[in-house]
Amino acid sequence: METPFLSVLAMVAIVLLVGVTGGVVYLTLADWRDRRRQQDETRTLKRSTAKRR
What is the tens place of the pLDDT at every residue in 9-22? Predict the structure, then answer.
């Protein structure tokens, strides 16, 4: 009777671990993408400001 409970508990733990890992990967990629986009915008603004002078 104890074995099915432990199996279900182990499966829940694995699903939660995969979910949390996926969330961390998503947030890391989103942060990287946003930082890259912000750097591109900064470079573009610097170029356009330099051309005006």
Answer: 999 999 999 999 99
